[in-house]
Amino acid sequence: ALRLAVVNGELTVHYQPIIERDSLVATGFEALLRWHSPIHGEIPPAVFIPIAEQTGLIHELGDWILKRALSDSLGWPEFIVSINFSASQFKRADFVESICSTASSFGVPFERIQIEVTETAMFEDIDRASSTLSELQSLGFRVALDDFGTGYSNLLSVKNFAIDCIKIDKSFVDGLGTESESAAIVNAITHLARGLGLSVTAEGVETDMQCQALRLIGCSHMQGYLFGKGVPLEEANEYYLAYRDADRRVVADGTPYSARAAR
Ligand code: C2E
Ligand code: CA
Ligand code: CA
Q1: Distance from C-alpha of 40 to C-alpha of 36, rounded to nearest angstrom
Q2: pTM here?
Q3: Ligand 1 pocket residue status of 177, Cβ below 6 Å
Q4: Is the CB of 85 inside a 6 Å radius of any atom of ligand 1?
């Protein structure tokens, strides 16, 4: 079924806003794959991505989502587009080249593209992973380390790999305000990242309390249902236009945008 899904147009991409800490304004969208099967209904990526990995279909899916997300991102020229890559995609010999050629063919500047990888994707061949990330960064791409705190969380990876951003996993954000351990971990990761000059995105922010705690701790960006779920392209485009116009209104009437953007 997954093999046919690409051909039959059953896949779509949703876009979740990435919010900047001080202004509470979006600065980008993360592309999230969606599969609506006419036979099986909505199938979450946590179910089908591992199957795509096992069957090798991930390459076809990955090429498809890369093209889709980059061409969609032409509608929001001031935003970053953040794209997930799984371990086997990252290990492909032509990984960097395929991203460069797709970005060039759509005319998307490399600086607007963020590549999300997990540490797990890098540990099989550290030397190669390290040179791939350096190459990406020197070409101008942004690199984000996804799900930080859930895998090996090897501090050497933060020190030696060319990354721009650490994404703190939702499981730690969930515990803010209820478990002292989570707050301590989020605090430590944030200070580590900031000390290294990296940006820090907290994932899965659902409540005002979490948002305020993360702003106090010093996370530079947030994502989560508090600000918005992943939405189809049309809604993402509308969202972009509303934010862009709101930004202009701030200049026009002097009202701080953050006062309106909290929801
Ligand atoms: P991820 O990259 O960590 O993406 C974040 C997941 O958390 C997304 O689930 C998103 O919808 C969900 N999420 C965001 N904010 C909240 C929140 O406030 N509360 C809750 N409960 N959930 C929130 P989704 O879309 O089901 O994706 C699951 C995973 O599947 C992703 O985790 C990523 O690892 C993978 N994935 C999704 N799209 C792609 C893709 O295009 N390529 C690859 N290789 N993997 C993908
Ligand atoms: Ca991600
Ligand atoms: Ca994540």
Answers
A1: 8
A2: 0.94
A3: no
A4: yes
Token duo for residue 245: 């116009």
Atom of ligand 1 nearest to the CA of 58: 44
Which three-class secondary structure string do you get for the chain? CHHHHHHCCCEEEEEEEEEECCCCCEEEEEEEEEEEECCCEEECHHHHHHHHHHHCCHHHHHHHHHHHHHHHHHHCCCCEEEEECCHHHHCCCCHHHHHHHHHHHHCCCHHHEEEEEEHHHCCCCHHHHHHHHHHHHHHCCEEEEEEECCCCCCHHHHHHCCCCEEEECHHHHHCCCCCHHHHHHHHHHHHHHHHCCCEEEECCCCCHHHHHHHHHHCCCEECCCCCCCCECHHHHHHHHHHHHHHHHHHHHHCCCCHHHHCC
User: Which ligand has the nearest atom to the CA of 114?
Assistant: 2
Model pLDDT for residues 8-60, shown as the tens digit of each residue: 999 999 999 999 999 999 999 999 999 999 999 999 999 999 999 999 999 99
